[in-house]
C-alpha cells in the first residue's frame, strides 16, 4: 500500500489536483485513482469517437469503450453476430480495434475480393500469420518464407495429391473407420451395439488416424498410439487465439509447443533418413512425393523443409476436417429424414442384393450427389475459419462500391492495418441464400436454385495461376469455405475424399441420435469454429457391412 501511495504522490506532483484531494485519507485516494483513471481514459476515448470529427478517408471505426482492448470481447464471443451487427451500422467496410491492432473488415463478395484477391505489394498473409504458425510448423516454410516460395510449396503439395493417390485412399480410410468404431469405440455385434460419444473428440481421433494412414504415411500412423499423439497435443496447444494475440508469453504451453515442434520435426527427419537408407518400406505418400521436389531455381527441398511442410499439412487438415465432419454428422443426427435419404442414396447406387454394400471408390464419391450437397451445406453454415487476416503493406484504395453511400470520399485502408475477410458472412447472407440459417443440403441439388447458380457463376470465373496450377480466381464468390486467390486451400480434394468416406461408412453402418436437448451451439473461442458439447449416440444397423 505504501509503495502504491508513493507512486500516486509522484503522479500527483505531475498532475494538478484540487486542494481537497490532499486531505483525503490514503485508502480513499487509492480508490479514487483506481476508479478515476480508467473512467477518465474511457471518457476521453468515448469523447474522441462521438464528438471529434473523423477522417473521412478512413473506414468508420466500431464504437468501443476501452482503448487498445477495443471490440475484442464483442468480436471474440460471436464473430458473426459482431459482423452482421456492424454491417447494419457501418456497411460492408469498417475498422475495429483488437488488442492494439486496427483491423479493417471488408465484407461481401467485393470485400472478399479486396483482401483475398489483393496484390502481394498490398496485402501479406505472411506478416499476418508468421508469429502464430512458424513456432508450430517450423522455419523456412509456409509463412516463414517469401510468398513466391509458398506458392511453389503449394505446387509440391498438389503434386503429392494426384488422382492416383486420392484413388488409393477410400479403402484405407474405411479400414481405419472399421477399426475405430469396432475396437476403440467398441460398437460391434459382440458387445452392446449402441454408444454415446463426444462427436468432436471421436472425429478428431478419426481424422488424424485417417490422415496419417493416407497422406502422412505409414510411420506416422504406426507412431500414433505412442509419443506422436503427445507431441501433437503439445504442438496443437500452441495454435490458439492466445498465441495469435500474444506470440511470446512465458507460459508452460508456449514452452511445450517449442519442445514439441523440435521433437516432431526430428521425428519426420528420422523417417526421411531411414527411408533414404532403404530401411523402411512405404507407399508413395506425401513425404515420398516431396523428396523429389525442387524450387524453380534448382534448389531442392531440404529434409527439414519437408518435415515442416508435413507438420503444416497435419495442422491445416486436422481441426478443419474434424470440425466439418462433426457439424455434418450433428445435422444428420438432427434430421432422421435426411439421414435416411443418404442411406437410400448408398443403397440405390452401391447396395448388393444381400443387404451389404460394395466398397466405395474415389470415383463413386462423385456419384453421391446428396452426400456432396450435405458437405457443401455444412461448410456453408459452419466454415471452419471465420476470419482470414492479411497485413496491409501499402495503402489500399477502396473501390467506391464498398464505401458507404452517404460518404463523399472514397476510403483508403492504410498501411499497418490488418484487412480481414469473413467469407462466412456472405455464405449466410439472407440476401443471397434463401432461409440462410436453415440447413438445407437440397439447395445444392436444385439446378435452378439461386444460390447454386450464384456460386456457379463465380466458380467459372477467370482462371489464374498463382504458381501452384491454374485455379478459378473465385475471390468474388459468395461461397468460399476453402478461401480464394493465392492462399486458396490445396487440401480441398483430400478433405472431400476423407469426409465423404468417413460419413459414408457411418451412414452405411450406424444410425445416429442427438443426445443433447437442443442442437449444439458454436464455440468461437478456438481457432476453428467448433460445436459445443456435441453428444450423439451411434447404434449398429442390423447387418455388419
Ligand atoms: C474441410 C477442410 C478444410 C477447410 C475448410 C480448409 C480451409 C482453408 C482456407 C479457408 C484456407 C485459406 C486461408 C487463407 O487464405 O489465409 C486454406 C488454406 C490452406 N489449406 Fe485448407 N482447409 C481444409 C483442409 C485442408 C487440408 C486437409 C489440408 C492439407 C492436406 C489443407 C491445406 C491447406 C494449405 C496448404 C493452405 C494454403 C495456405 C496459404 O496459401 O496461405 N487444408 N484452407
UniProtKB/TrEMBL annotation:
<dbReference type="GO" id="GO:0016705">
    <property type="term" value="F:oxidoreductase activity, acting on paired donors, with incorporation or reduction of molecular oxygen"/>
</dbReference>
<dbReference type="InterPro" id="IPR017972">
    <property type="entry name" value="Cyt_P450_CS"/>
</dbReference>
<keyword id="KW-0472">Membrane</keyword>
<dbReference type="InterPro" id="IPR050529">
    <property type="entry name" value="CYP450_sterol_14alpha_dmase"/>
</dbReference>
<feature type="binding site" description="axial binding residue">
    <location>
        <position position="489"/>
    </location>
    <ligand>
        <name>heme</name>
    </ligand>
</feature>
<keyword id="KW-0503">Monooxygenase</keyword>
<dbReference type="InterPro" id="IPR002403">
    <property type="entry name" value="Cyt_P450_E_grp-IV"/>
</dbReference>
<keyword id="KW-0408">Iron</keyword>
<dbReference type="GO" id="GO:0004497">
    <property type="term" value="F:monooxygenase activity"/>
</dbReference>
<protein>
    <recommendedName>
        <fullName>Cytochrome P450, family 51 (Sterol 14-demethylase)</fullName>
    </recommendedName>
</protein>
<keyword id="KW-0479">Metal-binding</keyword>
<dbReference type="GO" id="GO:0020037">
    <property type="term" value="F:heme binding"/>
</dbReference>
<dbReference type="Pfam" id="PF00067">
    <property type="entry name" value="p450"/>
</dbReference>
<dbReference type="InterPro" id="IPR036396">
    <property type="entry name" value="Cyt_P450_sf"/>
</dbReference>
<keyword id="KW-0560">Oxidoreductase</keyword>
<keyword id="KW-0349">Heme</keyword>
<dbReference type="InterPro" id="IPR001128">
    <property type="entry name" value="Cyt_P450"/>
</dbReference>
<dbReference type="GO" id="GO:0016020">
    <property type="term" value="C:membrane"/>
</dbReference>
<dbReference type="GO" id="GO:0005506">
    <property type="term" value="F:iron ion binding"/>
</dbReference>
<comment type="similarity">
    <text>Belongs to the cytochrome P450 family.</text>
</comment>
Amino acid at each position: 500500500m505504501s509503495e502504491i501511495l508513493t507512486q500516486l504522490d509522484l503522479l500527483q506532483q505531475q498532475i494538478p489536483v484540487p486542494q481537497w484531494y490532499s486531505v483525503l485519507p490514503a485508502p480513499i485516494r487509492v480508490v479514487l485513482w483506481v476508479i478515476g483513471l480508467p473512467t477518465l481514459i474511457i471518457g476521453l476515448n468515448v469523447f474522441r469517437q462521438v464528438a471529434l470529427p473523423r477522417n473521412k478517408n478512413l473506414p468508420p471505426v466500431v464504437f468501443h469503450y476501452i482503448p487498445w482492448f477495443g471490440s475484442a470481447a464483442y468480436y471474440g464471443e460471436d464473430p458473426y453476430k459482431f459482423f452482421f451487427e456492424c454491417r447494419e451500422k457501418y456497411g460492408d467496410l469498417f475498422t475495429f480495434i483488437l488488442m492494439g491492432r486496427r483491423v479493417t473488415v471488408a465484407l461481401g463478395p467485393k470485400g472478399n475480393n479486396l483482401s483475398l484477391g489483393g496484390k502481394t505489394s498490398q496485402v501479406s498473409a505472411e506478416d499476418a500469420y508468421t508469429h502464430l504458425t512458424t513456432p508450430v510448423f517450423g522455419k523456412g516454410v509456409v509463412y516463414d518464407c517469401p510468398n513466391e516460395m509458398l506458392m511453389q510449396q503449394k505446387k509440391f503439395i498438389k503434386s503429392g495429391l494426384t488422382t492416383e493417390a486420392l484413388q488409393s485412399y477410400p479403402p484405407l480410410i474405411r479400414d481405419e473407420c472399421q477399426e475405430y468404431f469396432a475396437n476403440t469405440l467398441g460398437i460391434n455385434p459382440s458387445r452392446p451395439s449402441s454408444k454415446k460419444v463426444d462427436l468432436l473428440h471421436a472425429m478428431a481421433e478419426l481424422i488424424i488416424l485417417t490422415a496419417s494412414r493416407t497422406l502422412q504415411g505409414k510411420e506416422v500412423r504406426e507412431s500414433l498410439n505412442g509419443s506422436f499423439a503427445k507431441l501433437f497435443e503439445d504442438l496443437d496447444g500452441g495454435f490458439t487465439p492466445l498465441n495469435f494475440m500474444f506470440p511470446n508469453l512465458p507460459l508452460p504451453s508456449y514452452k511445450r509447443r517449442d519442445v514439441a515442434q523440435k521433437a516432431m520435426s526430428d521425428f519426420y527427419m528420422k523417417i526421411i533418413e531411414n527411408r533414404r537408407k532403404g530401411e523402411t518400406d512405404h507407399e508413395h505418400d506425401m513425404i515420398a512425393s516431396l523428396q523429389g521436389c525442387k524450387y524453380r531455381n534448382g534448389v531442392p527441398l531440404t529434409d527439414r523443409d519437408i518435415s515442416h511442410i508435413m507438420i503444416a499439412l497435419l495442422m491445416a487438415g486436422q481441426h478443419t476436417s474434424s470440425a466439418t465432419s462433426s457439424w455434418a454428422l450433428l445435422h444428420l443426427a438432427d434430421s432422421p429424414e435426411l439421414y435416411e435419404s443418404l442411406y437410400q442414396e448408398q443403397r440405390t447406387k452401391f447396395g448388393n442384393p444381400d443387404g451389404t454394400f460394395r466398397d466405395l471408390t474415389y470415383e463413386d464419391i462423385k456419384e453421391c450427389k446428396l452426400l456432396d450437397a450435405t458437405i457443401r451445406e455444412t461448410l456453408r453454415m459452419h466454415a471452419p475459419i471465420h476470419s482470414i487476416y492479411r497485413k496491409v503493406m501499402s495503402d489500399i484504395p477502396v473501390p467506391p462500391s464498398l464505401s458507404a453511400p452517404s460518404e463523399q470520399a472514397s476510403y483508403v485502408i492504410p498501411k499497418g492495418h490488418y484487412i480481414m475477410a469473413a467469407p462466412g458472412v456472405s455464405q449466410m447472407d439472407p440476401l443471397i441464400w434463401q432461409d440462410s440459417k436453415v440447413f438445407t443440403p437440397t439447395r445444392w441439388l436444385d439446378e435452378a436454385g439461386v444460390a447454386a447458380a450464384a456460386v456457379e457463376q463465380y466458380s467459372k470465373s477467370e482462371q489464374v495461376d498463382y504458381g501452384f496450377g491454374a485455379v478459378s480466381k473465385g475471390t468474388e464468390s459468395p461461397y468460399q469455405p476453402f478461401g480464394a486467390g493465392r492462399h486458396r486451400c490445396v487440401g480441398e480434394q483430400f478433405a472431400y475424399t476423407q469426409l465423404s468416406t468417413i460419413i459414408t461408412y457411418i451412414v452405411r453402418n450406424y444410425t445416429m441420435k442427438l443426445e443433447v436437448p437442443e442442437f449444439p451451439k458454436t464455440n468461437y473461442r478456438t481457432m476453428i469454429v467448433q460445436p459445443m458439447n456435441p453428444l450423439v449416440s451411434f447404434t449398429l444397423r442390423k447387418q455388419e457391412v
